[in-house]
Amino acid sequence: PVYAKIDAIVIDEISMVRADLLDCVDNFLRMNGRTKGVPFGGIQMIFIGDLYQLPPVVRGKQEQEIFNKHYESAYFFDSHALRGVEFEYVELEKVYRQTDESFIRLLNSIRNKSITDEEIELINERYVEDSKALSGDAIYLTTTNAMAGERNEMELSKLKGKPYLFEADIRGDFEETSFPADEALRIKNGAQVMLLNNDPDGRWVNGTIGTICDIKRDLLLVRFAGGDVEAVYPFTWKNYRFFWNEETKSLGSAAAGTFTQYPVRLAWAITIHKSQGKTFDNAVVAARDQSRAAPKGDRRRLPSGDHLSEAG
């Protein structure tokens, strides 16, 4: 089995991993890992994340009561698997996404709950009651798909001209939960979109914002912030399965399925989940859920164009 051959497993966003899930990982690897019966099967475990960001999800009172009987908390560090296990801790100190030192300090103050009156006043200066009154290319960061979808549909309906519908070409094994783009993409000329792939020629990256200026039979023309207009063609993502190659004594992979679609998504609004790993220059935070303010805030590069709003 593959798990008997691997040397290390990396788990990103570890703050969201529940204690019971990590115990399941441990039990599985004890049975199927390189060394039977030892923690995590003797495989090196690398956990990456920020515990001050998204927490593990425990749904409902009944599930919480069950958790309380078996765990100190739902966080991964209270799993049975980590009892008595020593870890080497590495703290990443340099911020790469933002360069404005005052903005970095503000984000850290929110994150650490050490915010001052002056910093609160600075945030309040960016508050608007109705985000719908704002214009421009700002991205609206919301907590739910419903809020993002409502905003996108509202903005799309404002555009004149007919909508175009593009259906994804899905082949082989590709789970719906792993779709990298919309299965049914509905767009119009003038729509604000976000690119969902990294262009091999470096013209855009995953998360770049642009505006559709023409829709042709086999390509989209997208105008970016600098004024450049680029042709965007359908893109094919591959879903891989992994196996142990006895000849090379290493992990091998093969495409199990493909998903082909234009690599764009309507982007007047997106959820905080879909903003993971992306950077925006201009954003409006739907601050109805205050607990998400810091994770949302650090998706942005500069504070000058940002706003807070109660409306999504």
UniProtKB/TrEMBL annotation:
Which SUPFAM superfamilies does UniProt cross-reference here?
Answer: P-loop containing nucleoside triphosphate hydrolases
Gene Ontology MF, one: DNA helicase activity
In terms of superkingdom, the source organism counts as Bacteria
- Ranges for domain DNA helicase Pif1-like DEAD-box helicase come to 4-118
Report residue spans for region: Disordered.
289-312
CDD domains of this UniProt entry? SF1_C_RecD
Matching InterPro entries: DNA_helicase_pif1-like_DEAD, P-loop_NTPase, PIF1_helicase
Q: Name one GO biological process term.
A: DNA repair
Name of this protein:
DNA helicase Pif1-like DEAD-box helicase domain-containing protein
